[in-house]
Amino acid sequence: MTKKTALIFGLNKYAYEIVGNVKDKYEHVKIFTLNEDEVEKHIDEIEIDSFDLSDDWIDIHKNVDVSNSMAFCVLENTAENIFLTISLRANFKDLTIIAIASNKESANKLKMAGANKVIPLVETTSDIIANMLEKPISSKVLHSILYKESALKIAQIKISKESHFKDEQLTSIDWTRYNGIIVLSVMHDDMKSEFIYSTKAKHHVIREGDILVVVGYEADITEFEKKIGSRRYVNWSHWSW
Amino acid sequence: MLKRWILDFAYYLDTSKSYQRRKHFFYNLLENDKYRYKKYVDVFMIILIFISVGVLIREVKFHVNDYLMFFSNYIISFIFFVEYILRLWVSSSVSRIIVARAEHDTFLHKDVNLYKAFEEVFRVKLSYMLTPKAIIDFFAILPFFHELRLLRIFILFRVFKLFRYAKSFQTLASVLATKKFEFLTLGIFASVVIFVSSVLIYVMEGNNPNSPINTLFGAIYWSIVTISTVGYGDIIPVSHEGRFVAILVITAGIAVLAFTTSLFVSAFTEKLDEIKEAKTIEDVTKLKKFYLICGYEEVAKEVARKLHSSKNDIIVLDDNLERVITAKKDGYIALNYDPGKVESYTKLNIDMDKQVKAILCLREDDIENVYAALTIRSFNKDVFILSLLMNDLNRKKLDFAGINNVVYPQELVGLITKELVGKPVAFEVIHELRSENADVQIDELGITQRIVDTFTTVGELNNQDFRVVLLGVYKHSRDRFFFNPLDDMLLEVGDYLLVIGYQVFIKEFEKYLHTKVKND
Q1: Which among B411, B432, B444 has CB closest to A137?
Q2: What separation in angstroms does the CA of B16 have from each of A215, B8, B21, B112?
Q3: How close, in Å, is residue A18 to chain B by CA atoms?
């Protein structure tokens, strides 16, 4: 189940980038700003509203299906961003919150404040730079798989009731039968993804609801889905960091 | 005729590449501290010096083996002689002086005055021969004529040759040279005190039969021993007048000692930063490969840490002293140089193309990064430059400045959120692969000739046996990545295997690739 509404808190360069990348994936995108003067602005015909940190969020309670929404907390002031996150979490238990953090310290605080996922800017940027320099080929390939419109895709496929693999041991499956795709990992009940060659995964018997992370070309992934009788799937309930 | 012949020969030497190359080689070997093989020559010469001095010490009370004596007196002296001649040769260029004189005179439509040229050659060579180092080198050769007993003492000059090889002596000399005037003042003061007190004590005690001071030399000796506050006590004044002079000399001695000590301390304090900087630059010059980071802010700190953890050397340049101190505390070589000045790189004295893996402009300010990049590009077109971009509006400016790769953190946030929204689990898997702390990692294994000799196709690699996933092969010849290649794909030298697995298994797999020998 994908989310329907994106709530972006903060009107800045991060908000612009997020809007540019996710507007097509949501039915509704709404931006909230702390500065009332910015309410008149419009970005790609997206509605902008104001909020303040002492808000009781009545508007959101009334107008937004919170359990089916995702909040992006991108205020540039770290303290305000943490306060916003804790405020949202206190009011909306089921809201999925993604927040940006300037460094590790504020990332920890944001997690404690209830963010589901924190993007630590400094660490992420430096990871990218270090990988570009030390592992340029893998960096290029992974970047293109993840972010670019390349033919090579990464997908997560949920094992359904009718799947061929159901009740089979992971290591007993001959993956070479499925030419063109590579299975990287499997995620099961304990909500942790396991590398395909890990000791845990080796003895794992595939059950309904497991998610396989595969890499391959679009056509091959579709073929793979057909063969094993499962579909691509996103379930945010699985996602709780 | 002779003049013509000399001029032709000078022109020939001045333009001969092989002659200049040979001369340059010897110059590097003897004088260029940055030349990698010079240290071997230095060590060899130091060993010869110690052998020589060892023989001299042994000879005082024992008989020294004849062969060893021969080696010390003739072979070592001969080697030192050759070294002296070579140093004299490389100290200046005779041919260049003659050519310069010829060009000068021809330009003025005059006859070439070789006499003046040789005069110049003599002056230049003599000025080298009169330098302290050259004088020591010269005296170190003299024991060759060891039959002349007096000349044997010149073996001691071989010890002084150590000054040439020990940099700390040179540093000490350069530090003390900065206080030349103060030391001269001190020297004059001490000399006057010694002279006056010597004369006084001699006058007071010279005729006293009970006094041990009965010559002027004895009086000078007593004055120096007293003024230096050493006071052996072997010679003491016995008269009241003599003791009064002693009180004056001791008082003056305290002043001389205090002045000398403070001069040394202040000279070193003033030069300490310079000495440290010179040492740092020397360390940088010795590094084979390193990353040069311009600006040490938050992202730079993390990047430096990650690169350093994968065994890379890091050099940090920053014009802010506080950030430089932080970088030093974090364990990197850091210099308080402005990355936006050519002078900073000139001072560093590095070979950009050979030593620098990449330059990272990581100031969180586009203006500073553009400025640093342009500075670097002004003298080097090829070195790889990566830069942070803080505002997308400046992207073109960074490209124009010649930056090869730009990282824009805000864009990353957008891309990450996009991927997180669509495939959270898959995203986490990939993110984990890139993270330095994860057990499972993605790695690149280069294909060498040795590997190709044993494994000709992808199918022969047996990566599954090592629990390693082969994501694909990057074909260097075609600059293309082949995902999940078929077993019959041929491997070529220069290709890279992109593998995913536990770090320990990847290492084992890599070892297997390099060590397995084909069984025919």
Answers
A1: B444
A2: 63, 12, 9, 22
A3: 4
Q: How far is CA A74 from the centre of its chain?
A: 15
Give the count of alpha carbons within 13 A of A84, CB side only. Answer: 25
Q: Which of A68, A84, A73 is nearest to A26 (CA)?
A: A68
Q: In what order do the strands lie in the sheet with B469-475?
A: B440-446, B496-502, B469-475, B480-483
What CATH number corresponds to the domain at position A178? 3.30.70.1450
Tell me: domain B288-410, CATH 3.40.640.10, correct?
no
The region that residue B331 occupies, defined by phi over 0 for left and psi between -120 and 50 for alpha, beta otherwise, is left
Domain identity same for A161 and A205: yes
- Residue scoring higher pLDDT (A75 or A177): A75
Phi-psi region of B427 (alpha: psi -120 to 50; beta: other; left: phi over 0): alpha
B392 and A CB contact within 8 Å:
yes
Please answer whether residues B154 and B77 qualify as being in contact, where contact means their C-beta atoms are separated by less than 8 angstroms.
no
- Does the pTM exceed 0.90? no
At B342 the pLDDT is 92
In this complex, is the C-beta atom of B391 within 8 Å of any C-beta atom belonging to chain A? Answer: yes
Please state which CATH class domain B180-272 belongs to: mainly alpha
Per-residue tokens: A210? 């497991």
What three-state secondary structure class fits A34?
coil
Taking an 8 Å cut-off on Cβ atoms, the answer to whether B422 and A25 are in contact is yes
Which pLDDT band, with edges at 50, 70 and 90, does A189 fall under? low
CA distance A67 to chain B (A): 15
| Structural domains counted in chain A | 2
How far is residue A66 from each of residues A5, A96, B217, B238, measured CA to CA in Å?
A: 8, 8, 104, 107
Provide, rounded to the nearest whole percent, the portion of chain B with pLDDT above 70. Answer: 95
**Nearest residue on chain A to B474, alpha-carbon basis:** A137
Q: Does B503 touch chain A (CB under 8 A)?
A: no
| Contact state of B426 with A124 under an 8 Å Cβ cutoff | no
- Work out the minimum CA distance from B129 to partner chain A, whole angstroms: 52
Candidates B312, B358, B354, B318; CA nearest to B335 is B318
B177-204 pLDDT, tens per residue? 888 898 999 899 899 999 999 999 999 8
